[in-house]
Amino acid sequence: MSPDQRSSFLAEHIDRLARTHLRELLKDAVRGKRLRHRLGPLLLDLSRQKLDVAALDALGAHVEASGWQAARDAMFAGAPINTSEDRAVLHTALRASGSKLSSPAPREALDEISETLKRIDALVHAVGLGDASAFGVAPGITDVVNIGIGGSDLGPRLAERALAPYHVPGLRSHFLTNVDGQSAYELMHQLDPKRTLIVMVSKTFTTQETLLNGNVMRDWISRAYEGEVTAVSRHFLAVSANVAAAEAWGVPAAQVYPMWDFVGGRFSLWSAVGLSLALAIGCYNFHALLKGAALVDDHFRTAPWQENLPVLLSLVELWNRNAQGRGSRAVVPYADLLTDLTSYLQQLEMESLGKQVTPQGKPVAQSTSPVVWGSVGTNAQHAYFQSLHQGTDVVPLEFIGVVKPAHHLVANHDALLSNLLAQAAALALGKTFDEALAEAKQGSEEERHVLAAQRTFPGDRPSTVMLLDQLTPESLGALIALYEHKVFMLGHLWGINAFDQWGVELGKSIARQILPALENEGANTSAFDLSTQFLLDTIHDRRLTLAKHDR
Ligand code: F6P
User: Fold this and answer.
1) 500-515: average pLDDT
2) Cis (ω within 30 of 0) for the bond into 339?
3) pTM score, two decimals?
């Protein structure tokens, strides 16, 4: 165990709990009460985490000593806590309209947000009525394509799919994100250019993938109008903090919706970045999403640590990561509608918390972001759960379920939920060698022992269960905000800036250097490392060979 995992204030608890199986811990009702909490439509059950009351209180004392309330209040008030970019972090102000508390965010920011929400409402309303010409949009739109990547894609994509039962009729949504031309190619074959509205979403409006995909779709629409620029522009809206670049690219100023430097891309669903979502589910539901998030904001601002869901989630993660040394966490929603939750959380958590230096440029004192991965259950059970039950590494899990589905297929849903509950129980309880031996009825004594060894489950594997009453705009907003604040708390506790992302820059700049060498066969590649040179040469060679075959 490395020193960072054995933080001295937790050492005694780590040792004690290493000797205590979850089977034992689960018998303690008082402990269970401390680890189960409800907030509106959300239930959080942390009782299968390997913590007892004493360890939880030690973690609580740590968080209390950390000055978390002051740090939290500074974020809500718009202090420039993203120090490497000298920016405020005000995604909570985006949903202040749904809050019961008054917002401490700067008035100017709140006014701009409220103006933008009004613009979104008016546009969505007009599109719903079938005539958004006053907003520069062509008539007869049937398909909306959100072009964006990372935070300009994952949030709207997650929510659009999660809220499929709330979709307005007559308008289909699509998401074009990867620079792989395959998706654009397929969309162009599927859609009618004269009935397609493109929403270009890019905070910076410099992102290669988004601009390339935008160019492809613009050319496609342009061909349908024989290059008539004004007609083409009626098929484009943009969302950006770089309004000048969006305009220069060809979206008229009146059709550009603002983003702000005080909102990070991965926290931006609640802004105009959610425009394609708002078009898909209508204004009422979009506001309900904001309201759900505001419910968690209010809770985060007021609840003591013992009952504060984001704080408790962050303490459990701190415990698993730093005290137990777990390097990854699996997120397994038992809901097909939440298929995109894991990739959304990968960006939210790993782009925010995958840091190794403090804002002062010093190495961090402990490990930071675990790898977040996962996929929907029950499919996951038939793929990688074997390893989660009997593999050599312990991976904490997060199970997310929905009590009441949006359909009437009760038998399916009961089967789904029973699997969720069963997996959480099996991982925690396991099956002892003696239990497995008692089940092995056939064969010699030796054969029974050999089989029992393979049919033993260690158990003692931690998981969290989150249950949403129903998957509604409000509960989804609450769920996402819960994770956002957990991320904030971990950034605070780990002493890192959770709101910048310098780690994505190096690859981008090398790609810019490599591109000309891919485009021009004869380009001088000697500046690249030998592996890159070899791969570039191979690609050029193979292209020639494949072209010959095509002839
Ligand atoms: O490359 C990472 C990133 O900057 C993310 O942080 C961001 O969400 C994404 O790219 C898209 O950026 P933009 O909205 O500026 O196109």
Assistant:
1) 94
2) no
3) 0.96
